Amino acid sequence: MLSLPDFREKNIVICFAAEGQKVSFKNDNLIIKDEEENTVLQTTCHKIFSLWIAGNITITSGILERSKKFGFSIYMLSHNCRPYGLWSSATEGNFLLRRKQYDYKELNIARHLVNNKIINQTELLKGIRGKSQGAKDAIDKMTEYARQAETAVDLQMLLGLEGVASRLYFSHWFDDMEWKGRRPRTKIDIINTTLDIGYTYLFNITECMLNLYGFDLYQGVYHRSFYQRKSLVCDIVEPFRCVIDKQIKRAYGLKQMQKDDFREQKGQYFLKIEKNKDYTRWLIQSLLEHKEDMFSYVQEYYRCFMRRKPIEHYPVFKIKE
Fold it and tell me: Could you report how far apart the first and last alpha carbons of the chain are, in Å?
């Protein structure tokens, strides 16, 4: 298994094929060149955690061979950063872990994840300067929802608590922006579109980390099994979503995120291709600031799950203001 000291040396490498960049290898070094054949990046394969390619590109057998040899995954993204393909280096042979996953029928881990998510959302609201009375009331209610999540008697109750807490949180977190509410994948405004992109990057990084231990990504503990849905990844990203929420609010305040960066088509907003690189940079940067937290979280989650430890031993991610 990959250790934390080894993980600290790993990097996520991003190639923007839409801008004419190309990937090649030489002596086990990955090289990215621009359309003028200038070297943009060169790094040893030993330091690659995952390779993300945005835009159309020809994947050679040499790239796939090195992915397996050095244990990094390759994500293929469209021009607007929508993932459409994955070449994984999963450790699929960990059958003991998978057997435990299939045997697990309890609700305690799901309660733990939802409680952690609501607490982080509450912490972000507490950090708002000059809070309205509505925001203060929301903090009190969400604190109570987090407490109730710890003792939810069934999945429906837990889903209800998470849903009402999220609606309350989003209604106050982005209330100083042009915002109508969280509506996943509808792209009805620039915030929803950017949230979808940011959450996708978070999903991809989390998936890479879970793959390191050989989890069955489709076997969740909170999200139910659904055809082709990686339910476990959906579970583990929950406490970390607030990292993206916080970064988007900050980018909007710094005018790194503006309506002119998007094109509108039939009531939906799409990020312009020439802006992909800028948005990817500041969204990924926020996740990389927490990459060791995320790695340690997944590592500890794996250890607790394998040893069937009590829920109080499971990891907690705390957002910092």
Answer: 32
